[in-house]
Amino acid sequence: MDQLPKLAANYAPLSPVGFLPRANAVYGDRASLVYGRVRFTWSQTHERCRRLASTLLLTLGVRRNDVVSVLAPNVPALYEMHFAVPMAGAVLNTVNTRLDAAAVAAILRHAEAKLFFVDYDYVRLASDALQLIAAAGAPVPLVAVIDDLDRPTGVRLGELEYEALVAHGDPTVELPELQDEWDAVTLNYTSGTTSAPKGVVYSHRGAYLSTTSLLMSWEVGTEPVYLWTLPMFHCNGWTFTWGMAARGGVNVCIRENRPAEVYRAIARYGVTHMCCAPVVFNILLEGGDATARLAKPVNVLTGGAPPPAALLERVEKIGFNVTHAYGLTEATGPALACEWRAQWDNLPISERARLKARQGVSVLSLADADVVTDDAAMARVPRDGKTMGEIVLRGSSIMKGYLNNPEANEKAFRGGWFMTGDVGVVHPDGYIEIKDRSKDVIISGGENICSKEVEEALFRHPAVADAAVVAMPHAHWGETPCAFVVAKDKAAGVCEDDVMAFCRKRMARFMVPKKVVVWDVLPRNALGKVEKVKLREEARKLVPAVAVAPPAQKTKGKPTTKTVGGGRRDEHPVEQVMAMSRL
């Protein structure tokens, strides 16, 4: 049997890009994407992607393994680049729109991006990032602006514009064939807010298998209508960018994910599926009629933080059918899903919600997922729902590794497993449940915040002698940073407003502590380490001084000249709250 050869007839490298030509052949006349007044079919999307791929190759000189970065919300261009960029043999890098200029610059430099696409609404942010790159003497990528497809603004940053590049392309050009399914397809960053961000590299094979397994785990049938409430820049939209092509679905793209617009899109297009963080449920409940049911059920895949059972009860009563998932950027998105069992249907709604709040069982692209003891033996913990250990994963959907970071790779892969750093238990039925988050990471609205980064900024404040940051419960965002500080001069003290203003100048706004508590001394153990367990207990008793509400919708003016537009930097705009780097 070993002598049977691998032939073109019986072997083809796995790639999610292959879903697009199939969609063209099978679903060609079906709607592929809607955005305002714009409508495309799958045949049109296929042609547009081929056009862009040919332009990348023949006009812009993009070659195999070159990185093409993009800073954009959920617009058609971002969707199309998930196919067009790897069609040209390049690697797509989607950049989180919530980051500040320094973080964007750090990603572009680390990724060595050759080409940088920028949505018109983020031109100022991109311009600031590019100036930082140039000031550091690093190579500056070629820039192309993505103007609004429905209502063009004329905003530019340089001469290149996305639609012109698409129109310039030739859809008949022969594109390079994928030779090795282990080649990189995308590059995603787990933390673009640090000076040394970690770039997670996905393979074509891993992305393909993750896509198909999630479609099966979520039981997505043909012709779904998918509302893009989850940013495509997070884990490539949990692979549903490619998944909608695989099922011949309709991608409903909206720039402003305000509650009214979400409900309007659900009603207008007959939305069947969407993804979001649990915090979005609060926003949708507050922004709509919590007593009215949706005309038809909407299937929702949620992750980012364990959803409270009471919240699941409320959203399911109005017609959202929720499936809970858990994952990481390193696992190509969801790694566990709380698959529903028929025998649970007759349980009381409170019990059903409790079961749904668990993280669940491994998706099909994983060979295994378990919880192991935190020692050299790495033994599997008993399935008692009580014994805690570290959640570990292995399988084809796990990342290739961190780009140019051998130290992080050595730490992440151990004993044949990927170490998540998250603590959990295994219940008797095999379902995994998280009991604590990895070390001191704070998840606010689905975004990871490293407490150490915030602490480092606090230590630079001239009046702060000591500082520690932990998670504080928040009604809208799930968690927000809470800072405990010690003043250098006890008599002069520390001003809370001054500390917050100091932080706002040095980090993305979502990272800024919402509460600053001044103590005489921080609690420390015998080794001198801050006892954050005690601080978390104190933080749970606190609430933000001012309740945070979704910002008012931005009034859009039409520029009369081709000038630099303003980048959106709101602290927690709803469309960006739905972002997740750890599901």
Task: Give the overall average pLDDT.
Answer: 87
Query: Any low-confidence stretches, pLDDT <50, length ≥5?
Result: 545-583
The CA-CA distance between the termini, in Å, is: 43 Å
How would a textbook summarize the main sheet?
Answer: 9 strands, mixed
| Strand order in space, largest sheet | 2-1-11-10-12-13-14-15-16
Query: How would you classify the helix and strand content by structural class?
Result: alpha/beta
Cofactor: Mg(2+)
Pfam family, one: AMP-binding_C
GO molecular function: 4-coumarate-CoA ligase activity; trans-cinnamate-CoA ligase activity
Region (Disordered): 550-572
Structure, explained:
This protein is α/β, with parallel strands linked by helices and 583 residues long. Among the domains are: 161 residues, 3-Layer(aba) Sandwich (Rossmann fold), CATH 3.40.50.12780; 100 residues, ANL, C-terminal domain (GMP Synthetase, Chain A, domain 3), CATH 3.30.300.30. It is built from 18 helices and 27 strands. α4 crosses α5 and α12 crosses α13. The C terminus is likely disordered.
Give a brief description:
The protein is an alpha/beta fold and 583 residues long.
Write the layout of secondary structure elements.
Blueprint: H1 19-27, E1 31-35, E2 38-41, H2 42-58, E3 67-71, H3 76-87, E4 91-94, H4 101-111, E5 115-119, H5 123-135, E6 142-146, E7 160-161, H6 162-168, E8 184-189, E9 199-203, H7 204-217, E10 225-227, H8 235-238, H9 240-246, E11 250-252, H10 259-269, E12 273-276, H11 278-287, E13 298-302, H12 309-317, E14 320-328, E15 333-337, H13 349-356, E16 361-362, E17 366-372, E18 389-395, E19 401-402, H14 406-412, E20 413-414, E21 417-426, E22 432-436, E23 441-444, E24 447-450, H15 451-459, E25 464-474, E26 478-487, H16 496-504, E27 515-518, H17 532-540, H18 574-577
Parallel strand pairs: 1-11, 3-4, 3-5, 5-6, 6-7, 10-11, 10-12, 12-13, 13-14, 26-27
Antiparallel strand pairs: 1-2, 8-9, 9-19, 14-15, 15-16, 17-18, 18-21, 20-21, 21-22, 23-24, 25-26
